[in-house]
Amino acid sequence: MTHADLADAVLLRACRREPVPHTPVWFMRQAGRSLPEYRKVREGVAMLEACFRPDLVTEITLQPVRRYGVDAAIFFSDIVVPLKAVGVDLDIVPGVGPVVADPIRTPADLDRLPPLTADDVTTVAEGVRQVVGELGPTPLIGFAGAPFTLASYLVEGGPSRNHVRTKALMYGDEATWHALLDRLAGIAGEFLRVQVEAGASAVQLFDSWVGALPLADYRRYVLPHSARALSAVADLGVPRIHFGVGTGELLGAMGEAGAEVVGVDFRVPLDEAARRVGPGRALQGNLDPAAVFAPWPAVAERVRAVLAAADGLEGHVFNLGHGVLPETDPAVLQRVVDLVHASTAH
Ligand code: CP3
């Protein structure tokens, strides 16, 4: 597969808002616990250990591509991998999520968060090269956690519903907040860069929890840092996707952060999202990940509704509005992929 063929991949064309032979589709969290073949290879291997083993990363990244024929692979890793790589004492606890031993809340704590260099993540780069070598014409999406979402884990010490300590720091000590987000923007940007330089064809910045903020606070405390993380790969010519959950009020501002594609959760229909984001951006989304548990005719109806709302958009990448839930039936996702491809082919 030559470089020119990959550059013409349907996903990349849609991200660039060029004409496509069909709407491309992939799923956030497509590699993971909904797949029996994933659970099998992960037996006895801790999540973070798996992320630093190129052989496992390659196998797991390829599993959903083989199974579903999706239009992109997403690199198997986690948003906390670069934090672990710079020395933060953390673990991913099954059923809980990332847990940080000593939370970061003061200027002195920032000493425990040095910048990331490519040398810290050589096994990640090796994993990307292996995956890309095996993927052929299917593009690989690299990713990083956005500064706000990473900060939430670091400041809270783990997953959080209300982000109370995060907001206490953000509103109460703005200088330390900006210093922390500046560090995280550097780490996220470098982590994206490493993946693209190793062969990833696109990147996604996950700001999963930023929907916890009102627009004015997003602009003041977050947007400049997310923009800086995205700008770290601006010169590399790959499409950048910028995604968050519960971000209906933030879509316009997120569109200003620099990414070519804005990811939309399931709460805002894509035609309305396009009005909020404005022209010059492709959209990604946005079938409710819980909707795939309904009987197939209802799922199909909702898939068609997403496609209808996307009709006339400059560029559309079909996805769920958030990650695949672990209990999801892979056979239903297969039918979703096939329906999107068949009903948009021309
Ligand atoms: O398929 C893919 O999308 C690629 C792999 C991927 C993982 N995490 C693997 C993973 C990606 C893109 C992520 C990103 C990630 N990690 C995000 C942003 C995306 C989102 O869902 O909003 C966030 C917030 C995290 C933090 C995190 N890591 C959580 C909340 C969890 C779940 C904890 C649990 O057990 O319920 C993890 C662990 C994790 N990351 C798993 C996987 C497959 C599950 C661990 C396992 O399989 O043992």
Helix content: 40-55%
From the N-terminal CA to the C-terminal CA, the straight-line distance is 24 Å
Count the DSSP helices.
15
How many domains? 1
Number of E-type strands: 9
What would your notes on this structure say?
By secondary structure, this protein is α/β, with parallel strands linked by helices. It has a single domain (10-344), classed as TIM Barrel. The protein has 15 helices and nine strands. A seven-stranded parallel sheet has the order 1-4-5-6-7-8-9. It has a two-stranded antiparallel ribbon with strand order 2-3. Helix 5 (54-68) packs parallel to helix 7, helix 8 (147-156) packs across helix 10 (174-197) and helix 9 packs across helix 10 (174-197). The chain is globular. The two termini are 24 Å apart. Bound molecules: coproporphyrinogen III. The site of coproporphyrinogen III has 21 residues, from strand 3. Coproporphyrinogen III binds next to strand 3.
Summarize the structure.
With 346 residues, the protein is α/β, with parallel strands linked by helices.
Characteristic terms for this protein:
346 residues, alpha/beta, TIM Barrel, 15 helices, 9 strands, 46% helix, globular, binds coproporphyrinogen III
Indicate the topology.
Elements (H helix, E strand, L loop, with lengths): L2 H5 L2 H6 L20 H7 L4 H5 L2 H15 L4 E2 L6 H5 L4 E4 L3 E4 L21 H14 L4 E6 L1 H10 L7 H9 L1 H24 L4 E6 L7 H17 L8 E5 L6 H5 L5 E3 L6 H8 L4 E6 L8 H15 L5 E5 L9 H15 L2
Parallel strand pairs: 1-4, 4-5, 5-6, 6-7, 7-8, 8-9
Antiparallel strand pairs: 2-3
Helix pairs in contact: 3-5, 5-7, 8-9, 8-10, 9-10, 10-11, 14-15
The structure holds coproporphyrinogen III.
